[in-house]
From TrEMBL:
Official protein name in the record: glutamine--fructose-6-phosphate transaminase (isomerizing)
Domain Glutamine amidotransferase type-2: 2-312
Keywords attached to this entry: Aminotransferase, Glutamine amidotransferase, Repeat, Transferase
Leader peptide range in chain numbering: none
Occurrences of domain SIS (ranges): 384-524, 555-698
GO annotation (BP), single: protein N-linked glycosylation
Cross-referenced SUPFAM superfamilies: N-terminal nucleophile aminohydrolases (Ntn hydrolases), SIS domain
Region spans: Disordered: 51-86
Chain intervals with Basic residues compositional bias: 66-78
GO molecular function, one term: glutamine-fructose-6-phosphate transaminase (isomerizing) activity
The protein's annotated pathway: Nucleotide-sugar biosynthesis; UDP-N-acetyl-alpha-D-glucosamine biosynthesis; alpha-D-glucosamine 6-phosphate from D-fructose 6-phosphate: step 1/1
Biased amino acid composition, Basic and acidic residues: 54-64
Length: 708
């Protein structure tokens, strides 16, 4: 969804060109989240002190501290005033008519700077201190257009600028109130109420001949807002300051000390660390991927925290509805275990291709340090294991690919633990307000840890008293912070919108969770030991199946002109059928459906003819003979069959030239979905490339779905 990035340099001279490049590159790192427009706000040249007007509520006027102004350029529209005494306060940004073309536009960086040059801005001017903000927007309120893009402004004069990720649920009420007080709205967004509300608070304080700090303004704004959000505020009234706050949406602070070893872990209180006056660079980002190339020292901002950067120092306040004066908070920095190479394509053409082929390594990382002495060690669950084992039931809750990963793991968890396991799509659980009890363990699965429906379901489960377990790939995410315990899948940064390596790592993590929960049962000891041995060898089996890349490309070429695809699976591989079909649907933009093979005769059989391609997953497990029967029935009706089977089983599933066969290595039944999904991931990738679509950023989709 929306992406936020901000950059502040302190006591180190940076040219405006460099500042722009840092902000633009931050947006480039966030574009995988999905977006349809983008924007940037930077400082303009300072006006002579004598020319600065006194504060007023009038149009285009700045406050008494307006020594810093925001430079402006809206593509196709300029809000710079012709009055030399009026600050030229607005913001610099670009809006695109087509989704997902920021990278192709920004690679022609000369075009960006030509536009800046046309605005008569000195790109070579250095700033000892400067604060810039940037944003990628995924439209929710209002179509993609210049007036709906962020930063959103408080009005003429741009006294307050805001970038926002999330949804303000009471914006209509706030908008009506502000209109009654004389404010005029230009956009269709929910965000615009925020900077206008900040201006209203600021003006009201000054009308009473009082003073108000930047943090006081923001805290009063937060007091009026309902919904989920991450916000960054910038104002000419408070030059060279930034304020960030969050509620239900991830926001990261990165700190880079420019003296000494910049990659050294700084496990210190962030306020004490930054109050030393030394040269430093500070970053805000929606995602760790955007700051890893700058620093590895970061802080995940928690809900209702207000982070204020002033004079190079970071102070953190804890907002509380019940207390007018917020408490000061001490927070220590964390060290990011990620390398810059993880966010680059390397020798691959696309991120999705890279991430498919990274799966042997990502699975190894997922299991590293967790398989010991024929057992599984999951430190994140250790303190709650007794409660989980005595649960009335375990509920898996997720959306999309994460839901499929949980579905693939359910049979094994039931087998080893003897606890009933139910599946819930997060949105459906919320719609039904399904029953969750204190004796339940609710397991929330989300790659990003920011999926809106999953987080709302988490709040619902917490309210009902269930033990909540989080499984996510994102350190510091909202899901990781709000659950009682959990497991990081450690799959590494995943840039492609269509999840690949995170899916297989989720299955492996949930298999290890089943092994850990069921480790107190002697009756399943032999089964557990065989699975642990299979886990150790799983990366090698994945390497084997990746060698079929060329074979899957040939299959994709034979399917390039088809309009639909069916995928049949059952047992452990019902989830594989759903996920394989979803991948084709997501990136190749081809209609595809994953179906439970046992339901074939209850409707889907009517679709079978010699033109419709049907993939049947028939690898060796307890459902193998049933899948053989399904293949025979489809063959009898002249179905266009593509059968995935275990190596050596081709004669058993397909006689003569009646169908096409994909042979894969055989592993333990509960791990087979990890192997079986990879050919389907490769098929979806090659179909997309051959059909000429964007692999990494499919139309209308976002990596992190932060709205309902």
């Amino acid at each position: 969804m929306c992406g936020i990035f901000a950059y502040l340099n302190y006591n180190v001279a940076r040219e405006r060109r460099y500042i722009l490049e840092v902000l633009l590159n931050g947006l480039r790192r966030l574009e995988y989240r999905g977006y349809d427009s983008s924007g940037i706000a930077i400082d303009s040249d300072l006006a002579p002190a004598a020319a600065m007007p006194e504060k007023g509520r009038g149009e285009g006027e700045a406050g008494p501290r307006g020594r810093s102004r925001s430079c402006s350029a809206r593509k196709g529209r300029s809000s710079r005033s012709s009055d030399p005494c009026t600050p030229k306060c607005s913001f610099l940004w670009w809006q695109f008519e087509e989704l997902n073309n920021l990278s192709s536009y920004l690679t022609k960086s000369s075009l960006v700077f030509v536009e800046v040059d046309e605005m008569d801005i000195n790109l070579e001017r250095p700033f000892l201190v400067h604060a810039g903000i940037a944003h990628t927007r995924w439209a929710t309120h209002g179509v993609p257009s210049p007036r709906n893009s962020h930063p959103q402004s408080s009005g003429a004069g741009d006294e307050f600028l805001v970038v926002h990720n999330g949804i303000i649920t009471n914006y209509e009420v706030l908008k009506e109130t502000l209109v009654r007080h004389g404010f005029t709205f230009e956009s269709e967004t929910d965000t615009e109420v925020i900077p206008k509300l900040a201006k209203f608070v600021f003006d009201r304080a000054h009308d009473g001949e009082g003073t108000v700090t930047f943090s006081q303004v923001v805290i009063e704004v937060m007091r009026q807002l309902e919904g989920a959000y991450a916000l960054i505020f910038k104002s000419p009234h408070y030059p060279n300051e930034l304020i960030a706050c969050t509620r239900g949406s991830t926001l990261i602070l990165g700190v880079k000390e420019l003296s000494g070893d910049t990659d050294k872990p700084l496990f210190h209180d962030v306020k004490a660390l930054t109050a030393n006056g030394k040269p430093k660079e500070l970053f805000f980002s929606s995602d760790l991927c955007a700051i890893v190339e700058h620093t590895k020292n970061y802080l995940a901002i928690e809900d209702n925290e207000v982070v204020h950067i002033k004079d190079g120092s970071v102070s953190i306040l804890k907002f509380d509805y019940h207390n007018e004066k917020p408490a000061s908070v001490q927070r220590a920095l964390s060290f990011l275990e990620m390398e810059v190479e993880q966010i680059k394509k390397g020798n691959y053409d696309h991120f999705m291709q890279k991430e498919i082929h990274e799966q042997p390594n990502s699975l190894t990382t997922t299991m590293r340090g967790r398989l010991k002495d024929n057992g599984v060690v999951l430190g994140g669950l250790k303190d709650h294991m007794k409660t989980i084992r005595h649960s009335r039931r375990i509920i898996f809750i997720g959306c999309g690919t994460s839901y499929h990963a949980a579905l693939a793991s359910r049979p094994f968890l039931e087998e080893l633990c003897g606890i009933p396991v139910t599946m819930e799509l997060a949105s459906d659980l919320l719609d039904r307000e399904g029953p969750i009890y204190r004796e339940d363990t609710a397991v929330f699965v989300s790659q990003s840890g920011e999926t809106a429906d999953t987080l709302l379901a988490l709040e619902y489960a917490l309210k009902n008293g269930a033990l909540c377990v989080g499984i996510t790939n994102t350190v510091g995410s909202t899901l990781a912070r709000k659950t009682h315990c959990g497991i990081h899948i450690n799959a590494g940064c995943e840039i492609g919108v269509a999840s690949t390596k995170a899916y297989t790592s989720q299955i492996v993590v949930m298999a290890m969770m089943a092994l850990a929960i069921g480790s107190d049962r002697l009756s399943t000891q032999a089964r557990r030991e065989s699975i642990i041995a299979g886990l150790s060898d799983l990366p090698n089996k994945v390497r084997e199946v990746l060698k079929r890349d060329g074979e899957m490309k040939d299959l994709a070429e034979s399917l390039i002109d088809t309009q639909s695809l069916l995928v049949f699976g059952r047992g452990y591989n019902y989830a594989t059928a759903l996920e394989g079909a979803l991948k084709v649907k997501e990136v190749a933009l081809m209609h595809s459906e994953g179906m439970l093979a046992g339901e074939m005769k209850h409707g889907p059989l009517a679709l079978v003819d010699e033109t419709l391609p049907i993939i049947v997953i028939a690898t060796r497990d307890t459902c193998f003979s049933k899948q053989q029967s399904v293949i025979q029935q489809l063959h009898a009706r002249k179905g266009r069959l593509i059968v995935m089977c275990s190596e050596g089983d081709a004669p058993s599933v397909c006689t003569g030239d009646s169908c096409r066969v994909i042979e894969v290595p055989q592993v333990a039944d509960c791990l087979q979905p990890v192997i079986n999904i990879i050919p389907l991931q490769l098929l979806a990738y090659h179909l997309t490339v051959l059909r000429g679509y964007d692999v990494d950023q499919p139309r209308n989709l976002a990596k992190s779905v932060t709205t309902q």
